[in-house]
């Protein structure tokens, strides 16, 4: 190899690097990725915020349950049917037939974590409504792993379905 060929190769490499640097500089002018401006904001609920619980208190549970659809409740109840039965036998969780009016944590042979006994009282539509929204928030320490039903209409439909089963 003579000196002229080596010079051509070095020139080609330096020229390629120069073209690459020009492309990078041009793309930085076109696409500004160092901007401090926020393109959009995603609002997320704050964890443990007491302010978000206040609107739930204003809901008229009796009116929602009175207007609820039992058939839609049976459909939504399929989420619950993975652990709960309505035929009088216990599954992973206690059976839910006759749950309205029954004391919390009182089904024989059901494995409770003790959290429902600490809450105490009987299951009424209002208590079920708030429990179905956030089981762990209603009874801290409960072993129920269900995240809850966020829609008030779904909770009312499930309660109407459970009421239709009778005692």
Topology readout:
Layout: H1 3-30, H2 54-57, H3 61-66, H4 70-76, H5 115-119, H6 125-133, H7 135-138, H8 152-165
Helix pairs in contact: 4-8, 6-8
Explain briefly what this protein structure is.
By secondary structure, this protein is mainly alpha-helical. It has 8 helices and no strands.
Question: Your description of this structure?
Answer:
The structure is a single chain. Helix content is 46%, strand content 0%. The protein has 8 helices and no strands. α4 crosses α8. The longest helix has 28 residues, at 3-30. It is elongated. The termini are far apart. Residues 50-56 have low confidence and may be disordered.
Oligomer: single chain
Overall pLDDT level: 83
Q: Give the radius of gyration.
A: 31 Å
Helicity range: 40-55%
Q: Structural class, from helix and strand content?
A: mainly alpha
Distance between the termini: 99 Å
Q: Helix count, per DSSP? A: 8
Spans of at least 5 consecutive residues whose pLDDT stays below 50 are 50-56
- What would you call the shape? elongated
Characterize the main sheet: none
β-strand number: 0
Residues in β-strands, percent = under 5%
Primary descriptors:
167 residues, mainly alpha, 46% helix, elongated
């Amino acid at each position: 190899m003579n000196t002229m060929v080596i010079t051509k190769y070095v020139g080609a490499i330096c020229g390629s690097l120069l073209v690459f640097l020009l492309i990078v500089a041009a793309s930085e002018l076109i696409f500004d990725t160092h901007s401090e401006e926020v393109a959009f904001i995603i609002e997320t609920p704050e964890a443990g915020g007491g302010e978000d619980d206040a609107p739930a208190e204003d809901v008229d549970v009796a009116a929602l349950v009175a207007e609820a659809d039992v058939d839609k409740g049976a459909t939504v109840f399929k989420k619950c049917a993975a652990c709960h039965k309505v035929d009088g036998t216990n599954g992973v969780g206690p059976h839910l037939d006759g749950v309205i009016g029954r004391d919390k944590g009182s089904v024989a042979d059901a494995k409770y974590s003790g959290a429902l006994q600490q809450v105490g009282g009987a299951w009424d539509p209002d208590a079920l409504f708030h429990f179905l929204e956030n089981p762990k928030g209603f009874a801290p320490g409960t072993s129920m792993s269900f995240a809850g039903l966020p829609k008030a209409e779904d909770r009312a439909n499930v309660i109407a379905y459970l009421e239709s089963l009778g005692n």
